[in-house]
Structures are given as C-alpha cells and as structure tokens.
Specification:
0% strand, mainly alpha
Length: 602
C-alpha cells in the first residue's frame, strides 16, 4: 500500500494553491450571521428561545456570583471549609481553607470568585441536564446509541471552536461563556452517569424488583444510591472540564482569571500568567480533592453537620475585613524567563529550526501538494487496513467534508503540525510513562507535576513557549507537547502497571532481562493502553495547535481566532471550526478503530 500511495502521489501531486477567500461555505455562514443579526429582536426563535435562554443563564450567573461575593472574604473561606468538612472530612476542609486564602494572598480574590461563579453555574446546568440524560442512556438502549456519536463529536471539538457559534447566538459575555462551558462539559456528565447506572449489579436490581419495587423506586432506592460514588465522580470530572473551558472563554469577554492570562499573553508577561495560572491550579486541586473525598465517604450526620455550618454562618456575620498581605511570583518568574531567553537562545533556535526544517516543512509540503481526492483514498485505504470499514468510511467522509469547506491548504498545514506534535508527544510521553511504571519513587515525585499540568488551561502553555521560541508554528508544537504529555504519561504508566504480576513473574523466572521483559511482555500486553494514549494525545494536540493561532501558528487556528474577533471573517472562522471538528473525527476514528480492531493483546 505504501508503494502504491507513493506512486500515486508522484503521479498526481500538484502545486499548492492558496485557499479561496470567498468559498461557498464562507458565504453560507456569513449569510447565517446576517440572518441572525437581522432577526435577533424579531424572530420567535430568538424572542421566545435564545434570548430567554441568555437571560436565564445571565440571571443564574448573577445569582451565584451575588451569593459568593455576599458571603464576604472571611465568610466564603469559612463556608468553603465547613462544606468541605461536612462532605469530605477534615483534610479536605483544611485544603479548601488554605486554597481560598491563597486567592487573596496572590492578589486575585475578585478574579478567582468570578471564575468560581462561572464554573459553578456551568456545572449546575451540566448536572441538571447530564444526569437525567445519562440515566436515560443507561436504561434505554436507543437513546444511548443515538447520544454516542453526538458525545464523541462534542468531546473531540477543541475549546476554541465553541466560541464563534456562541458569540453568534448569545453575544459576548458571561451567558455565552457559561453555555459554551455547558456544551463542553455535559458529555462528561452524561457518560460517567451512564456508566454508573449501568454498572449497578443486576442481582441487586432483580432482588428489589422481586420485592415489588416500581421502576421509580428501583431508580431512587436502588440504582442511584448504589451509583453514588460514580455520580460524585461525574460531578468531579465535570468541574475539572468546566474550569478549563471557563478560563478560555475570557476570549469572548467572560470575567475571571482568564482575563489576566489573556492580558499576560498579549504582553508576553510570563510572570503575570504564572500568578493567574497558579490560582487556577489551586482552585482545580481544591475542587478535585473535595469532590473526590466526598465520593469515598459518607457526609457527616446532621447532628454534627448543623453546628459546623452554623459556625460558618457566624463567621459570615462577623465584621471581618478582607485585607491580606499580597504575594506575587511575577517578578522572579520574569527574571528567570529573561535569563533563560538570554542564555538558551542558541539552543532554542537550533531546536526550532531543526524540527521546522527537517520534520514540519517536509511533511507540510507533502500534505498540501497531495490532491484532496488522493488524500481521501489514502485515508480510506489506511483505515480499512488498520481500523475496519466503519472507521475507514467515517474518516474518509470527514476528509471529504474538509475539502468541501474550502480550507484544504490550511487544514493540511494544521494536520502536519498536529502529526509532528503528536509524534514528539508520544516519544516523550511513552518514555516517561515507562519510567514511572518501573520506578515507584519517580512516579510519586512526578504525580503532583502531572496533576498541576492537567489543571492548567490550554493557552497558559503558550506563554513559556512564546518566551523561548517566539511567535511561530513551532511555538504551537511546543505548547501542544507540554499540554498533551501528562495524560499520555498516565495512560502508558497505567497500561504497563495493569499487566498481571503473574505474567511478569513468569517472564522473570524464565530468565528475561529487564529490557526483554519490557519489549517482549509489558509493552505488547499494554497495547490497549498505548493505543488509548495515542488517541488522547492526538485529540489534545489538535486542540492545543488550534489555540496556537493566537501566537502565529496560522492555518485553521488563525482562521478560528479571526472568526470570533473580526466580523468580516466570521464565515471563514466558523468553516475553520467545522474543519477542525472533521480533522478531529478523522484522527479519532482511525486511532479508536485501531484500538478496537486490534485491542489489548492480553
């Protein structure tokens, strides 16, 4: 197949032409925008639908924000500690108090409360919508089957791609931010809820049914109580996903810590971004630890919980000021950045030029000079070979869709960047994951770094990349690698650790060396985990490469950014968003299809 593909390329390759500035897809999306603008205050869809939804979400955000700010500084810290103590124990309560105090110490109290308000509003809506849908998906087969492809696309879609349609329908501001976050987070709620309800032991359900329980009683008295740990996990993961998206929505004028990061990015001020990023990490860690601990234990009984909550209410009523000594890391971080820029310039330039010249440019040239129909045929053939006919057809249809949008050259440039970044991510992530799996102390030392890395919003990683490499395509690659390596490390480590100990012991007793054990036993048996790591790495790299449009990465990322920031480029930007979705579907189907068709070898 490789020889045939190479021959076809040599026979049909063409000189790349720039994408059309006035493609049919652009004109269509521009006409949609014009129709929305003309009918926003007159059409029933907006008068009785979109506008009321926007108003309702705005009122919800204002209510949550008023509740948080109304508690005052000391009151909010006390309430956070009291609620954590009741739901998750004293360790989580201490962490919550320390975390909320740190927001004030960093001088970011108001921004942190704004971010928390948007996150809580989005999580509340996600739970109200996602939990019932997850229950239905678990109990009604056709609903689960119908939701699966929709949820797949929603989870593949990079965060940036949500922003243009949200601003079109809901304008800029908090309502659009919360609705975009809801759409991004609710698939997690639905899927984990579905898993929890479907995982309830059938024997228990049958026993309750034999006792005469109705369907409602089975749900409320058996399924939901037994699925409680998984449901709390659903809330936990929804919070994590929502927090990452809320920060990105600063680009559509959402308040909070994201605004600090956007301003720092505009000025290439790594220190200011570090302070805001640290506040986001602390918030994520607090919310994660509290909800995780809550999923593992029962809440305090009311006779103990009431005095704790009453004490917190008393603190709210006390006239305690909010003056806290501020501590900023901006100055030392900026000094360190300046030192690195000065002393590492030769090395960073060599690395950038080497990767760009020997990997990125040749691959990009190969892709952009390949006719679209030949690329589609290659995707179809490659998919049939490694993933099966269903995945191959979906991937080929996605490639056709990209061509139809009129952004073929930019799509191929983006794909080249994604493939190079994915290769570097897997190279580093697999090596680090193997090392962590084989050395417990290393795994323990690295775990907090991985936790922090996975809670940072995506475009925080652009700051150190820009400081080291300037604004370029390689900057997006560096940021994508840093962003995607942590989950790859974790999945590879988990896959290797899940190899049965009896198999490892048998190999060792047969005289295998550590190298033979790794290559002949552990890696083959961890193939499922490795393929999942590759799939997740590709999806995360794609999302980060698109964010790289903010720092000169160009291609589809630039088109998306221009689409929601410049009115005349709206049609092109929305088309680019769909092209990114289709690229994500293409890559996801091929890697997931390979995972399913080959599967773990164990």
């Amino acid at each position: 197949m490789v020889v045939a593909a190479a021959g076809a390329y040599l026979g049909f390759r063409s000189t790349p032409a720039a994408d059309s500035a006035d493609a049919a897809a652009f004109r269509f999306f521009d006409s949609v925008r014009e129709w929305v603008d003309a009918n926003r205050d007159s059409h029933p869809l907006f008068l009785f639908g979109v506008n009321y939804l926007r108003l309702g979400v705005r009122l919800l955000v204002e209510a949550v924000s008023a509740a948080l700010t109304g508690l005052g500084f000391a009151g909010l810290v006390a309430v956070a500690g009291a609620v954590s103590l009741v739901l998750a124990g004293w360790r989580a309560a201490l962490l919550a108090v320390a975390g909320f105090l740190s927001f004030a110490v960093l001088g970011l109290w108001t921004e942190s409360v704004d971010t928390l308000a948007l996150t809580l509003a989005a999580v509340l809506l996600s739970v109200l919508i996602g939990v019932p849908l997850g229950i239905l998906a678990a109990r009604v087969r056709w609903i689960g089957s119908a939701l699966r492809p929709v949820l797949d696309v929603m989870q593949i879609l990079p965060t940036f791609a949500y922003l243009a349609p949200m601003t079109l329908l809901f304008l800029i501001g908090s309502p659009a931010a919360v609705i975009a976050t809801l759409i991004y987070a609710v698939p997690v709620t639905i899927r984990i809820t579905q898993l929890g309800i479907a995982g309830v032991a059938p024997v228990t359900v049958e026993a309750a049914a034999a006792q005469g329980s109705t369907r409602w009683q089975l749900l409320t008295k058996v399924r939901l109580p037994m699925a409680r740990p998984v449901l709390v996990l659903a809330v936990n993961q929804t919070i994590m996903v929502a927090l990452s998206m809320v920060v990105v929505t600063a680009l559509i004028d959402a308040p909070g810590l994201g605004q600090n990061i956007v301003r720092a990015l505009e000025r290439v001020n790594v220190g200011a971004a570090f302070d805001a990023g640290l506040a986001i990490v602390i918030m994520a860690v607090v919310l994660d630890r509290v909800t995780t601990a809550a999923s593992r234990r029962r809440p305090l009984p009311w006779r103990l919980a009431v005095p704790v909550l009453a004490a917190a209410a008393l603190v709210v009523l006390l006239p305690i000021g909010d003056r806290v000594p501020a501590l900023s890391f901006a100055a030392p971080v900026n000094r360190l950045t300046a030192w690195v820029e000065l002393h590492w310039y030769a090395g960073t330039e060599w690395l950038k030029n080497t990767v760009t010249g020997y990997l990125l440019n040749p691959l990009e040239n190969l892709l952009v000079t390949t006719p679209w129909w030949l690329f589609v045929l290659f995707v179809l053939g490659f998919g049939l070979l490694i993933a099966g006919w269903r995945a191959a057809l979906v991937a080929a249809a996605a490639a056709v869709g990209v061509a139809a949008l009129g952004l073929w050259v930019h799509a191929m440039q983006t794909l080249a960047t994604v493939l190079v970044a994915t290769a570097l991510t897997l190279l580093g992530g697999v090596w680090a994951g193997i090392s962590c799996a084989r050395h417990d102390r290393l795994a323990t030392a690295v775990r907090p770094l991985l936790d922090a890395a996975q809670t940072m919003p995506s475009f925080v990683y652009l700051l150190p990349a820009v400081a080291l490499f300037g604004a370029s395509r390689f900057t997006a690659i560096v940021a994508a690698v840093i962003f995607a390596v942590p989950p790859v490390v974790r999945l590879v480590e988990r896959g290797i650790r899940d190899v049965p100990p009896t198999v490892v012991e048998a190999a060792l007793s047969a005289g295998s060396t550590p190298r033979q054990l790794l290559w002949k036993v552990q890696l083959p048996m961890a193939r499922g985990g490795l393929l999942l790591a590759a799939n997740q790495g590709i999806v995360m790299v794609l999302g980060m490469v698109v964010v790289g449009g903010l720092v000169g990465a160009g291609a589809l990322g630039y088109d998306v950014v221009a689409g929601f920031s410049q009115r005349e480029d709206f049609g092109r930007g929305l088309a680019a968003g769909f092209a990114i979705v289709l690229l994500g579907v293409l890559l996801d189907r091929l890697t997931q299809g390979f995972h399913r068709s080959k599967g773990p070898s164990s």
